[in-house]
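Work Package 3 (structural annotation) set out to generate three-dimensional models for the target panel prioritized at the project kickoff. During this period the team completed the workflow that converts sequence records into discrete structure tokens, so that structures can be stored uniformly alongside our sequence database. As a representative example, we reproduce one entry of 129 residues exactly as it appears in the project archive.
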Amino acid sequence: QVNLVESGGGSVQTGESLTISCKASGFTIGRYCMAWFRQVPGKEREAVAAYNNRGGITFYADSVKGRFTIARDNEKNTLDLEMNNLKPEDTGIYYCAASGIYRAYGALPPTNQTDFRDWGPGTQVTVSA
């Protein structure tokens, strides 16, 4: 049974760093495209970072480029999101997701939430000014 569980969320101040983690069970993260999505009230869930397992190609939303890093640990079967220089607009619920979509070697990973089949329950990140 596929299961994703996020952890590491919390409250921080502007400029601080936080790393959230997603533990997968029931499948091997290294065999799938993975992503971190963020949702804030009144807005659609958006991909902030994504990873194509075929070639290790990553995607970052413009709003987080240069500050966030997505990283996979095959040994632990986890997917981390390292977030630096956090801003109040980074506040939201962060979801880990696994895609059943095939991507060619070296292609950009999927970023549309409809391309992702399995989701964790989310972890809250709050950044205060």
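The mean pLDDT is 96.
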